[in-house]
Design a protein that fits this description.
The structure is a homodimer of 717-residue chains. With 717 residues, the first copy, chain A, is mainly alpha-helical. Chain A is built from 25 helices and 13 strands. Strand 13 of chain A pairs antiparallel with strand 12 of chain B. Bound molecules: adenosine-5'-triphosphate (2 copies) and magnesium ion (2 copies).
Amino acid sequence: DAGGVESLDYEVIENYAYREEQAQRGKLYMYYSVGVKWFFALLIGIGTGLAAVFINISVENFAGWKYSLTFKIIQSSYFAGFLVYILFNLALVLSSVYIITNFAPAAAGSGIPEIKGYLNGIDTRGILLFRTLIGKIFGSIGSVGGGLALGKEGPLVHTGACIASLLGQGGSTKYHLSSRWLQVFNSERDRRDLVTCGCAAGVAAAFRAPVGGVLFALEEVTSWWRSQLMWRVFFTSAIVAVVVRTAMGWCKSGKCGHFGSGGFIIWDISDGQEDYSFEELLPMAVIGVIGGLLGALFNQLTIYITNWRRNYLHKKGNRVKIIEVCLVSVITSIISFGLPLFRTCTPCPEADPNSGIECPRAPGMYGNYVNFYCGSKKEYNDLATIFFNTQDDAIRNLFSAKTIHEYSAQSLLTFLVMFYALAVVTFGTAVPAGQFVPGIMIGSTYGRLVGMFVVSFYKRLNIEEGTYALLGAASFLGGSMRMTVSLCVIMVEITNNLKLLPLIMLVLLISKAVGDAFNEGLYEEQARLRGIPLLESRPKYQMRSMSAKDACGNQKVVYLPRVAKVADVVSILRSNNHNGFPVIDHARSGETLVIGLMLRSHLLVLLQSKVDFQHSPLPSDLRGSSPPIRHNLSEFVKPISSKGLTIDDIYLTPDDFEMYIDLAPFVNPSPYVVPEDMSLSKVYNLFRQLGLRHIFVVPRASRVLGIITRKDLLIED
Amino acid sequence: DAGGVESLDYEVIENYAYREEQAQRGKLYMYYSVGVKWFFALLIGIGTGLAAVFINISVENFAGWKYSLTFKIIQSSYFAGFLVYILFNLALVLSSVYIITNFAPAAAGSGIPEIKGYLNGIDTRGILLFRTLIGKIFGSIGSVGGGLALGKEGPLVHTGACIASLLGQGGSTKYHLSSRWLQVFNSERDRRDLVTCGCAAGVAAAFRAPVGGVLFALEEVTSWWRSQLMWRVFFTSAIVAVVVRTAMGWCKSGKCGHFGSGGFIIWDISDGQEDYSFEELLPMAVIGVIGGLLGALFNQLTIYITNWRRNYLHKKGNRVKIIEVCLVSVITSIISFGLPLFRTCTPCPEADPNSGIECPRAPGMYGNYVNFYCGSKKEYNDLATIFFNTQDDAIRNLFSAKTIHEYSAQSLLTFLVMFYALAVVTFGTAVPAGQFVPGIMIGSTYGRLVGMFVVSFYKRLNIEEGTYALLGAASFLGGSMRMTVSLCVIMVEITNNLKLLPLIMLVLLISKAVGDAFNEGLYEEQARLRGIPLLESRPKYQMRSMSAKDACGNQKVVYLPRVAKVADVVSILRSNNHNGFPVIDHARSGETLVIGLMLRSHLLVLLQSKVDFQHSPLPSDLRGSSPPIRHNLSEFVKPISSKGLTIDDIYLTPDDFEMYIDLAPFVNPSPYVVPEDMSLSKVYNLFRQLGLRHIFVVPRASRVLGIITRKDLLIED
Ligand SMILES: Nc1ncnc2c1ncn2[C@@H]1O[C@H](COP(=O)(O)OP(=O)(O)OP(=O)(O)O)[C@@H](O)[C@H]1O
Ligand SMILES: Nc1ncnc2c1ncn2[C@@H]1O[C@H](COP(=O)(O)OP(=O)(O)OP(=O)(O)O)[C@@H](O)[C@H]1O
Ligand SMILES: [Mg+2]
Ligand SMILES: [Mg+2]
């Protein structure tokens, strides 16, 4: 299989062992497991919140040191400052790419496509390991602190998912951190729920948007959703919000270095435009169209570049990856330092004592109106204000209300073009990288540009360029990621302004529609490039006219007999790489009967442990009482994101080969079956909505033993 | 079947006729139908928004006239005012109950349990008709305007659902308002999606909470959710928000009579408490516990009363229902007017010119600090402020910040007890009635009470009684309705204050947990009382140890042959009231084969139209070419919420009885099947998650024709 991608088994395998275990457990166990689930939700919330705070504090401090050092040096020499700036960035980025290439390769990129795949039923190797978590956290500190054109939001989602998954399997098995007590989640299904919580927690932490986090998990990453899960997911997000809030309160007193001044994306534009007139809807629609076009273009360009990297550049090994990232870092530093040098500065506007905005800001501090390479002390460099600044500050400055005419169209255009190019080039390099913040930067730039035109065209006072910047940001994200409700809610939560909701929706409706005309969303495209075969929620159009039999083609089904000779089992396992086999038995009448489905992974466990081998070729129930269960259910659970056993890991003696094994206690006795002429779209719905891995296509039944209707399912406790 | 409750068929019946129709339709039709869906979403949004505005304007105007008249009269005589007040209320309530009893019986109550049932797959008779819509709108104007202890929010959800459903079937069939052009939604599935949009629109209109509306639909009412639906539902809610906002802007200029001053629940408590200390968590938890207890008690009391009404009182006919409502109205009027008379008034607090709160308010106006039966002009009656007032004003006054010590504990307690009793008694009378507003009133009263104790206990300045009132409201709704995420979001949206989210969550977690220890949520309990058999999202615990065969018991399956004699069909249909029958045919080898499922409703259509009757007992395909389709698919669609055809509606001549009918083109050729020993919990999941009506239990297969895995479903366009 390509790239270590394998399906997950979300179905509960109700074999003999499982039924035994279920029978032993009482109602009390159910309460216990519910309690543990909530406790885990709490832990995921706390863990993700702390990880977010840690990343933010680190990034802000590195960026703070960098800018304050550079600003100090450029007071005497711009060239020395330039060098220091480049080297500082390079060092941070180098540390990040080093961690990724040598320690946690699965932590590169945003991780959202892989998590989306996981929740759709595909396990990508290495994606949820402990080392990936560590790599993600430290890698994104380096890459974001190093000033690359990428964000820390996507990685936080991945971080949350890793934390959740590690908790779900009771710690890291490899680093012996696991605890048996915590291994209550034996089924993939429970783990899936935890990972969903983790994703929501990640978004909630990244944007401090608990409701947005829940909706993001619901709309964008999960493929299955149960309404009971919702409350738990929401709880997790709220815990994140509380943790982050508490940490920020603690940092306010200055204990966290440069952190106090920002780091989290939260722009309170309650000062913004309260009302809008109907003429404004046209420029807003234009923003939507631009967003759709630029977003789709972004997706398309990144597809080309990713393809090229995958097939050519990254094949050459880690050294090339490192060099590539360093090159991108140097180019980014040069552009962001160099371009503002060519801008002539603008005199500061009349100071408005109420606004609290200083112009120019004090050197080495955060804020608006950066004085950079200016002749006079009372001037500011508008390009440096957005380019030579941390991303969060740049966004805040772009969104800022009450600062009409701060930027020149020329600066905004320059920034837009350069940053767009940088974002495209940076995407797909071997560092953790989110696309939210670059998207917001790009979008708010052209949004503000449109806003400037609107202000000068309509010549009315209540139009705020900052509001247009916000709409621009929404439109680019909509055009690239094609998220809808969750993006709306996240935007509302980060700006803390419910009144803009209809406008954001309008813009998103347009940008998504425009983008959809060209290609799929960023995450879907990237998942496809990575060989993650996502199943969409709807069947394809042509499936309506296909039958289940058509989908199987004329495949020759590989069966297993109920009592199989070990040698035969091994040769069957070696001869193909199917992951599930129907097991057949002979009824007394001599007729064959399908008694269930045997998974390859379970077979391998049986072969490895050898305890079920028997000398006789007769089934065990014919030889007496019910078979003893010699296995713990958890032996059959494959650790997440790892390769698991293969047939080559198993060593059998010649004696073993002559033994038999009775599969009946281990098969899944009731896999889902469909009649051969069921239309494929119905089969698809069954497969997708129940999260299956195998469906048996069987001939039409000859009789109906009973009909189940609603009445039959209304069983009282 | 009890009370006209019948299952819906959300499955697509892929019979011959359907396949033919699908084949004729091109890709273009798909775009057309997507376009129509969005257009309908728009219409639903506009319709529900306008309905909400209409109801609000009417209620506010009636209430405004009532109070201004009463206040004018009591300047001279309290007794005359009392009489006018009672009569005014009685007239409004009488009009409401008259409409309900004589014209639209299905419009009584809140409607949410029925809609929940509809979306779970059960059609309650009359629930989505045009007359119900009309009855609901005018009935709730009467009952809310008449001052009963009920709200207009639940009815608005029902209104939205009715509008959606009527659009979905292209108008009202009975009143000849339907248009063929709009009848694109032939399947129950599409209608279900529309009704989901309608519910969200209703909540969005009731609380001006678009996000809350989406989450309410998702969490509380629907049983199936597709992620594509989310964006459409959200769009609908946002349209509602825009419509309501526009209408309110238009009303601000005074064009809507008394409306300008309120009507929508939206309390901006951004003045409220910004921060909370850890000691406050204890009283907040106490509020949660009280909410859980009182909410569960409310549910339990309403169960008893509803049972009594159902089995005894309402059996006596409409006149008793009318008398009952009138009695409740008079009692409500007497209590709300009479009790404040016994309160001694309180001197007005020192006026704070910045707050904009007048004390006492100008007579006949809306606002806080009502001067009622006071000795001096500079006093207010705190009980009248909450009792002798419109509900919206009362809530606003309870939530009001910066008015510490406005209420005495005695007044709040009196109000709590009396209003709780009134709400319990009013619930279940024959008028449209929502439980949100009464719940908020009850909850905010004890919330404020707890807040008062906290203020006097901790003696710190930044504690706001209004914030506690809000938490109380959340706790009561949580304890009674057991909603979680949606309630949180609605609360945040109506108060426009994101900072309270964690507190609201804490309170809801506790109140829901406490309530769950006693009984189920209000809507589930009411659905059960009304005989709506909801399928929960999880299988019952004991289903794990049952098999599909166990659920069928030893039922004798009633089959139909492929070519059946009309007389036989009629006698089969008369002999039982099953709604689906397996159809069997004989293969050439003489073996029997199940060729599909025939629905009773489809059979009845065939019997009525008679065009498919044939003289020969041979199947049509044996006699030549493929059968012509003589039916339009829409003939088979049952109109929503109506009884549909029964066997008694069909008149057949003796000649007809001798004819034959070939069922093959009309059967559903691939109903879902499960092997007999599949555990019932798996069957349940299949049934519930795919929204089925019938499942065939069949013997184990003798062979597997193919295995479908993810790879087989990845078909490229
Ligand atoms: N026991 C079997 N006998 C014959 N064909 C099989 C059998 N199992 C699977 N197949 C077919 O072989 C192909 C690949 O099967 P495989 O089991 O690798 O599934 P997959 O889609 O790759 O998912 P997974 O991630 O589980 O491997 C599919 O077309 C499937 O229909
Ligand atoms: N064709 C049939 N032959 C025998 N038993 C049947 C048949 N169809 C249904 N039953 C059984 O009869 C009982 C009632 O069936 P019915 O068709 O009325 O379903 P229901 O649960 O009431 O739902 P609906 O709302 O569709 O009527 C159920 O226990 C069901 O298993
Ligand atoms: Mg495979
Ligand atoms: Mg029935």
